[in-house]
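Recap from last week: sequence in, structure out.
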Amino acid sequence: MKKLAVHLHLHYFEQLPEILKYLQALNGVEYDLFVTMTQEDKDIAAQILTEHPCAQIWVVENRGYDIGPFIEFLHRIDLNEYEYVLKLHTKGKKSGNYTHLNGFRMDNALWGRILWESLLASSALLQENLNILDTRKDAEMLGSKYCVTSATQDYEKLLPGVNAALQKMELKEVQRLTFVAGAMFIVRTAALKPLLAYQLSDFDLTDGRVKEGTLAHVMERIFGILGAPIIAIDHGNYRWKLFMMSINRFFWQKKVTKTGRTVIKIMKLPICSIRIGDS
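Predicted structure tokens:
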């Protein structure tokens, strides 16, 4: 049995150089790399294969953000060949929207950085993470302490969908749950097998304007249920950056609404609201 199956969903091609640096942390670990992309790009594939000659690269339908391709990945590999799965994906950095987690506000760029660095900041950290799971046989999943959340506001609206999905997997319903917001983690492979009840085709075509309520968002919570208990690792101090982000947000906010309007606020007062294409 190999130690690690690594799934990378590469949507934002421009992030590949940064990601390849993170993937250097895999050196010294027995792993297989599987990459999904929603469009073919021979140059991007060549860059990946230069660094990881044995990587398998698949072009898949753009369904379910990073979650649908992850389900497709689970169907394409033999889960019995791996002890752990490392789930990774690109995260858009240009959005002006913020996420509120565990008392902190963070933009997508910092959120993504925290998720990546919790898993692959260095070879030593990755090995430490794997050693934690090797030692803690009672735990199933590991992720950043800044992103592991049990706050009811992060799942209560999705709970009916969560329990419907659990029913399809022939698992018990829940009323409370914990999950890794952002869906990057290391998890025991056996915990993921119930997800095979779903296919990529079960997910809607990805629409970046839809920020919540989809099957993909339900599955993000399901991962936490299957991966419970989750180890929330303390991997670095981001408190100052998160604090400054909150201060900056008070003075300046740029947010894209569900209807596609861009709203700009100064000291929380809206001063501009436009939609792309408006005259």
